[in-house]
UniProtKB/TrEMBL annotation:
Residues 24-44 are annotated as: Disordered. Residues 51-191, 219-327 form the DUF3048 domain. This is Lipoprotein YerB. InterPro entries: DUF3048_C, DUF3048_N, YerB-like_sf.
Amino acid sequence: MLKKAVMLSLVAFTLIGCGKEEKAEPTKDVTAPVTEEEKENEVENAHPFPLTGMEAEEAATSRSVAVVVNNHPKARPQSGLHKADIVYELLAEGDVTRFLAIFQSEMPKMVGPVRSARDYYVDLAKGYNSLFIAHGYSPEAKEMLTSGTIDHLNGMQYDGTLFKRADFRKPPHNSYISSDAIVKGADKNGYDMDTPPASLTFSEDGRSMDGEEVSSIMVSYDNNPSFNVIYEYNKDKDKYERFSADKKTVDYDSKTPVKLDNVLIIETPHKVIDNSGRREIDLLSGGNAYLLQKGKLIEVEWKNDDGKLLPYLDGEQVPLVPGKTWINIIPSNPGLEGSISKEIQ
């Protein structure tokens, strides 16, 4: 076969040589620098998701959805967190944290367990113009929701219809909502779901080149080991993996682990305001923060930028690395120094 192929190549070469001289097609110089016009075309054709900076096949048009997710040990592992673009983790009552999971680039089939709202979860969801989803509310949150502060679906009105109770868990750790039910509920209430949030700022390297190499970091909430959070940097995957009480955070159904590209840990004043232990949390004043990117820790400050809590350094916003982000909010007393322990690489 090799001999036959060589003979055919020689014949083809002879025929071309005997014919009229043909002009060779100009070849593109792959080493030539990219022109400004080509750069502009690349930018015009790029369609990054607004909350992850990851490339999309076409421009994102869907509204973000923010869900209050239960983090009690009896609610773990949760469903859907691995698909959230941004997750806020902060205290509810006592030393128990809850999540506000914000979805836009992708939506899981099921999210939950869904838990009750607090006013600061509503404020954070509003920063992304999200459809807000919870099951129950504090008095302050109920006033915000009933006054039309934000479009919302609540299990108090839709328990057993849009919200379903799982048979493998007990209340209040068994309320779930599906992506289909969210669409159905939004349509029923006439909510606009075609307006995406404003895009965040992204860079492939972020500011990680300036940081201290840290292989893992632990965040403590009131010294309750059940709510200790550990982020471990997986160098091979260039991602952070999350652990609660030494167990990896994975999806209940698929067992897919949460994989993160940015971890922002901020300190801010917390104040207990009633006998139930409900809190007032300052999300406006800004303050000290740690940012983890690509295996490095950077000391930054956080600012509330039109409802979004973002990292800043020397007065400039620090870009996020494209991918998923987790934001831990801890009390300023004991603050970063008292709540954080890190392991140097």
